[in-house]
From TrEMBL:
Belongs to the PNP/MTAP phosphorylase family. This is purine-nucleoside phosphorylase. Pathway: Purine metabolism; purine nucleoside salvage. CDD domains: PNP-EcPNPII_like. GO terms for molecular function: purine-nucleoside phosphorylase activity. The keyword Transmembrane helix does not apply.
Length: 237
């Protein structure tokens, strides 16, 4: 089991897409061969060369004193917008997920369908609660008042404010300078196809990965058939 702390970064190694098992899939409907095959493989969804470059860039860019670590893990997609129950978190952990979120995977599937190489990061914003919900007939609870019972039930409860704060805290490590920030989404465009780099802040780590990949050609950068994606809202299981 991988161990990550809040605001650590996780490279997506593989993903689990339960919605796809149930028939909710971004590639449903008529297929256009112009974009990709009817039945694309996803066993190679997350590009190994790009993941290798990411680890090299992390070592080159991150301070030795930084407590933030880079991991690789399996990402589970859920539809949201509600957070997962404790039972759902335990189920996802048991089937091999390391973190869970409400995004990323549909975009990855579409990108891979189009033959685009993908590197995806997730920011750990909170820890999922895996312990079972207390039973109402637990003898240790019988003498407790309503406030005490509510405190027990609220332990570890997911908070969107907590998620946003973790994103703000981590942003400083992902930005090259204050002047480099260009809002929630940073676009790198090149000749030919244009692909978005979906990242919380434009930053030195992303620029370093692009440079190590050997495809930066201007101050803004050039990517040809590659997506680097970072999503900020994920729970560690």
């Amino acid at each position: 089991m991988l161990q990550a702390r809040l605001t650590d970064i996780v490279e997506n190694l593989q993903h689990i897409f339960p919605a796809g098992f149930a028939g909710t899939h971004p590639l449903r409907g008529p297929n256009s061969e112009e974009f990709g095959p009817r039945f694309p493989a996803l066993s190679d969804a997350y590009d190994l060369e790009l993941r290798r470059h990411a680890h090299q860039a992390w070592k080159a860019v991150m301070s030795e004193n930084s407590k933030r670590r880079l991991h690789e893990g399996v990402y589970a997609f859920v539809g949201g917008p509600s957070y997962e129950t404790r039972a759902e978190c335990r189920m996802l952990r048991q089937i091999g997920a390391d973190l869970v979120g409400m995004s990323t995977v549909p975009e990855i599937i579409v990108a891979r369908h189009c033959g685009i190489r993908v590197l995806a990061f997730s920011l750990v914003t909170n820890n999922a609660v895996l312990s079972p919900v207390p039973r109402g007939d637990d003898h240790l609870l019988q003498a407790k008042d309503v406030r005490e019972l509510d405190t027990i039930l609220q332990e570890g409860k997911a908070s969107h404010e907590e998620v946003l704060e973790a994103g703000r805290t981590a942003a400083i490590d992902m930005q090259g300078s204050r002047n480099s920030s260009r809002g929630p989404y940073q676009m790198f465009t090149g000749s030919g196809s244009v692909h978005s780099v979906n990242i919380r802040e434009s930053g030195c780590l992303t620029k370093r990965i692009i440079e190590s990949h050997g495809r930066i050609g201007s101050a803004q950068g050039q990517l040809h058939g590659t997506i680097i994606m970072m999503k900020p809202l994920h729970e560690w299981l």
